[in-house]
Amino acid sequence: MSAPRDQHFLVDRRAVERIAGSVEVSGRRVLEIGPGEGILTRALLDRGAHVIAVEIDPALVEELELTFADELEEGRLEIVPGDAKKVEIPPFDLVVANLPYSVSSKITFRLLDIGFEVAVLMYQKEFAQRMIAQPGTSDVGRLSVMVQTYASVKPILELSPASFRPRPQVRSWVVRITPHEPPYPITDRKVYADVVRVLFSHRRKTIRKALRLGEDAFASETIERAIAALPEDLLQRRPEDLTLEEFALVANTLAGC
């Protein structure tokens, strides 16, 4: 069967074994997004996981139901048809998945919002590199800041295009994501998320100018009060140069205004 949309089926069995074995799944509820033809699903089930598989493609859902009829009957597998960006997902403990490249960002943000113990996720290499980009580098952006605020990210495996069918044009990274509390106090998480979004929407502007362009998120009076309260040297810098502590300072100042 050909891959739907932008999904590339993982066919490298050694990689599958490494991914499935990178976290203890026995007896745990494991969310798998985009199971495709079920090669990783099988490896997780064989390790004693209870798998919740979310698949958007109806043809693949039908194929999975046939392939895993026994596991479905035994209750060791749940198949959730639908779009992982918005479908209701049953409770889970862990996430192990090969995410479709085009929705990696939205699904990652949703998973962090829902919460989990550990996630082992596959991304396009360049996307994963942005997740761990540090302040002051060209790769840092909204993704870097939001992910690093709420989780630690550790690359554990790199895969070539030959590991997939059809072969993508890029290399892939498998990373381990472990949620944690923000390293600096955040008064309002929504305000924090809005600040990060607004600033990186105008990443070539100074913080002062970028905030003043954020009237879709904050009232102009609130922005001006926050600008008056923030340090001048911070206001003159650009978003890519701020640390996580400084993003928290901007957000907390706005939340207090």
From TrEMBL:
Biological process, per Gene Ontology: methylation
Keyword vocabulary terms for this entry: Cytoplasm, Methyltransferase, RNA-binding, rRNA processing, S-adenosyl-L-methionine, Transferase
Main location: cytoplasm
Subcellular localization: Cytoplasm
Keyword S-adenosyl-L-methionine tagged: yes
Residue stretches making up the Ribosomal RNA adenine methylase transferase N-terminal domain: 15-181
Keyword rRNA processing belongs to the record: yes
Broad EC category: transferase
Enzyme Commission code: 2.1.1.-
Binding-site residues for S-adenosyl-L-methionine, renumbered to this chain: 8, 10, 34, 55, 83, 98
GO MF annotation list: methyltransferase activity
Family listed: Belongs to the class I-like SAM-binding methyltransferase superfamily. rRNA adenine N(6)-methyltransferase family. RsmA subfamily.
Protein role: Specifically dimethylates two adjacent adenosines in the loop of a conserved hairpin near the 3'-end of 16S rRNA in the 30S particle. May play a critical role in biogenesis of 30S subunits.
Protein name: Probable ribosomal RNA small subunit methyltransferase A
Gene source species: Methanoculleus caldifontis
Gene that this sequence comes from: rsmA
